[in-house]
């Protein structure tokens, strides 16, 4: 068997030629090798080449395999026998040229190769479920694509940035429009309250005393004509349905942009019996005064004094209109918008505070920088006494 599988390196030195033996020697050709102990007739002689036009061309492996019954050299199926040209009369004609024999052998090899392939053609590539002929793989691929589409839609609806699409993926999200920006909801706005029952009762009783009325998040505000403020307050206090018998607050608002009426007096009333609130507003110009409501609510005494002290608005018929927080000779009103926020030296400080030396002024500036200076308090007065006694405010460390 080893001799059968071994192929000669030089085809010209083989005892059998690719073209086959001469006529009359075809019957003597066998696909078995002679045993090592038997003599071979004509072992040392080479038969003369056949007198043909292709004698100069070297024998091909296919023609050699057809004559010897062995596979050509270099074939992967070494040892496989090939039927000889004259061994099977049904497969090859008796008189066949070398070219015809070569063509027939190639066709037979292609037929055997096609017969060795599995039915249905080549198997699909591994890892490509979309190319598989199996219906289950196709359904799996469709489910995966649908899941990816749902995730991308959920991210887009949540306002998140979608993941970058893979190259070649269908429906890439690169050109997808962004989710619209949600506009900020507008807050509530004041509405007209002319139809409010309290406003109707006031207009029925006092006619033109009510200038306008508005309602904002459940809070009723009524603008009153300045000369009628005392009359309106007394009417609301004596109202039978909702008696506003408590003045909870009285304050002022300064709006310099309103040149005609920069000051607005605000009265916050509360009805203890009816558990309702109402806000009255009176607008006045610079230098004008408004009637005091101390005759209606005595608690308005100190409230109107505070407005006079911090805003400079005067109240007519007030029993004791004077400053309540600052000294009488203090210049300016601190809650006005034009009043400076930083500390200033005015006539009152120059009049009531002693003169400081350069060192004392520097020490006072240092204390103010550290937040230790509080004017018009006990600490400030104690510091003035130290200065008057000639003592050191900040003694040196020993």
Report the major sheet: 6 strands, mixed
Instruction: Show unreliable segments.
Output: 1-40, 52-56, 73-90, 123-132, 169-173
Mean pLDDT: 73
Order of helices and strands: HHHHEHEEHEEEEHEHHH
Helical content stands at 25-40%
Number of helices: 10
| Major sheet strand order | 1-2-3-6-5-4
Structural class designation? alpha/beta
Radius of gyration: 60 Å
Measured between the Cα atoms of the first and last residue, the distance is 120 Å
| Beta strand count | 8
Shape estimate: elongated
SS strand fraction: 5-15%
Descriptive tags:
398 residues; disordered N terminus; 6-stranded mixed β-sheet; alpha/beta; two-stranded parallel ribbon
Explain this structure.
The chain is elongated, with a radius of gyration of 60 Å. The N and C termini lie far apart (120 Å). With 398 residues, the chain is of the alpha/beta class. The model is unreliable at 1-40, 52-56, 73-90, 123-132 and 169-173 (pLDDT under 50). Helix content is 29%, strand content 12%. It has helices spanning 2-5, 61-68, 98-116, 135-157, 197-206, 229-237, 300-311, 347-352, 358-369, 378-388; strands at residues 191-192, 210-216, 219-224, 246-254, 263-271, 276-284, 289-291, 314-316. The strands form two sheets. It has a six-stranded mixed sheet, with helices on one face. Helix 7 (300-311) links the parallel strand 7 (289-291) and strand 8.
Tell me the layout of helices and strands.
Blueprint: H1 2-5, H2 61-68, H3 98-116, H4 135-157, E1 191-192, H5 197-206, E2 210-216, E3 219-224, H6 229-237, E4 246-254, E5 263-271, E6 276-284, E7 289-291, H7 300-311, E8 314-316, H8 347-352, H9 358-369, H10 378-388
Parallel strand pairs: 3-6, 7-8
Antiparallel strand pairs: 1-2, 2-3, 4-5, 5-6
